Amino acid sequence: MTQAEFARFSEFIIGQCGIKMPPSKKIMLEARLQKRLRALGVPSYGEYYRYIHSESGRGELVHMLDAVTTNKTDFFREPIHFQYLAKTILPEVLSEQEGSKRRGSPLFLWSAGCSTGEEPYTLAMVLSEFAHQHPTLRFSIMATDISTKVLDRARDGIYDEDRIAAVPDALKQRYLLRSRDRGRNLVRIVPELRAAVQFKRLNLMEESFSFSEPLDVIFCRNVIIYFDRSTQERLISRFCRVLRPDGYLFLGHSESVHGFDLPLRRITSTVYRKIG
Ligand SMILES: C[S@@+](CC[C@H](N)C(=O)[O-])C[C@H]1O[C@@H](n2cnc3c(N)ncnc32)[C@H](O)[C@@H]1O
After folding, report:
1. Among 48, 144, 118, 87, CA closest to 268
2. Is 152 a known active-site residue?
3. What stretches of the chain show up as alpha helix (H) in DSSP?
4. pLDDT per residue as tens digits for the range 231-264
């Protein structure tokens, strides 16, 4: 890939999905796009660029975005967030709901940039456990990503056994089914938990995403790290628009809203609350 081609791809990618491609990512981008070139039998990066901008190459954009996104994730990643949710936020929400108009109305959560589903299924486990103790709690989890490839895997809810080490044993027993084929070392999320999460493709760069209800909790972790500062600020201001007053935003451990002029206050490390 020539420098000029790399510059063209970087500009195109940042415009499509916000992911910045500094020069240090050139080798990575070449390797990832190489797979698409091979799959399509396209001989060069220049040809591929032209193809993706042509009428016949329109459908290729989805595959290119699949290829350029980084999808690393885990069950109970950054576990302190799930402890905070279960021990502090959920009891607080429940007591706020008591005696208010919102009593018994579901809690709306969004896992934005959900990758292969480990994050929203972890949320579903934590909320189901809480709801078991407090049956008045109802919840709905929306999980979105730009990559169709990871969404397909998330919907299937099938994982290698070595991916579930961080899931506590009691939760493994309740929420994971072992494959009957012992040789394959696979587990599947139980149907009730799969039904608790709706997966949908959504590009966070869309200016106008909206939800039918104001959201109580947004998890957007290890996503904005790939965006530049102005893209981060615009996205988080859109999050503020769809969050309910006093709703919560969780970011990844190396992300923050520091320096942004937004109606959020930090309540603990990487957890924010919308100013009501
Ligand atoms: C590193 S994964 C993080 C997964 C999970 N949130 C976690 O912390 O484990 C980042 C995800 O963000 C998604 N992503 C990147 N840019 C996006 C965009 N513009 N719109 C929606 N999702 C995006 C990627 O496809 C990827 O699956």
Report:
1. 87
2. no
3. 3-17, 26-40, 45-52, 60-68, 79-84, 90-97, 118-133, 148-156, 169-175, 191-195, 229-242
4. 999 999 999 999 999 999 999 999 999 999 999 9
Catalytic status, residue 265: no
Q: Does domain 79-274 have CATH number 3.40.50.300?
A: no
Are 197 and 155 in contact by the 8 Å Cβ rule? The answer is no
Atom of ligand 1 nearest to the CA of 116: 27
Given ligand 1 and candidates 121, 146, 250, which is best to mutate, with the most ligand atoms within 8 Å of its CB?
Answer: 146
Helix 60-68 to helix 45-52 angle, to the nearest 10 degrees?
A: 130
What predicted TM-score, i.e. pTM, was given to this entire model?
A: 0.96
Domain ranges of the chain: 3-67, 79-274
Residues contacting ligand 1 via CB (< 6 Å) = 17-19, 69-73, 77, 113-115, 119, 145-147, 150, 203-205, 221-223, 226, 252
pLDDT tens per residue across span 175-227: 999 988 778 899 999 999 999 999 999 999 999 999 999 999 999 999 999 99
Catalytic residue among 36, 77, 145, 216: 145
How far apart are the CA of 30 and the centre of ligand 1, in A?
A: 20
